[in-house]
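Kindly inspect both lines:
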Amino acid sequence: MFYWALLASGFTSAFNCVALQMGLLGSTIASRHKDAAIGIEGKRSAYAAWATGTFLVSKLLAYTLLGALLGLFGKAFSISDGFSTIVELIAGSYVVLAALAVLDIHPFFRYFIIQPPRFMARFVTKASKKGDLLTPAFLGVLTILIPCGTTVAVEALALHHANLILSGMVLGLFTLGTMPVYIAFGGLAGFARSRWGKGFDKVSALIVLFLGLWALKQSLGEILR
């Protein structure tokens, strides 16, 4: 497995996810600050740091678990070696098609991008308005409902591996790669997103395209063997 590619893809993809997801976290922090006593800046700063850390850890755990579940789901369909290869081939093909959609090669490929229902986004937005201590952790888990960038393609890659450990590592490493960008949000990340956001998305899509083609090569090798 190309571990470096997953980390790099997560890093570059994060620039187009950070505004939405950290914006939701910002709403939670703002709600908490509104309820806090005026003048207690130390407590406010401590909550902001705690909220950000909790959000990122829960997000990492949630995506790693999602990857593991996708691996189990893919394995459940592996009734026979032949059928397993077909499932892997379909998943690998979707990774390639989704990457081509992000690269904007042709409008046709946009039909292969799976968009979550709008009610999910509304639910996550509503949850972010609460300022209690558990909201940042809950919000980190809820980000799986609002994937952006190449996240869905990487989820298909996790399905392709059809393995509890490897599939969990796929999404875990991808999410780990996003961490530096989220931590730097408000500084370099905000500037880079406004100036080179589309470029970062293209780089992420190219890396995922490489991973998808590699997955297809593995599946086709099994068929032709």
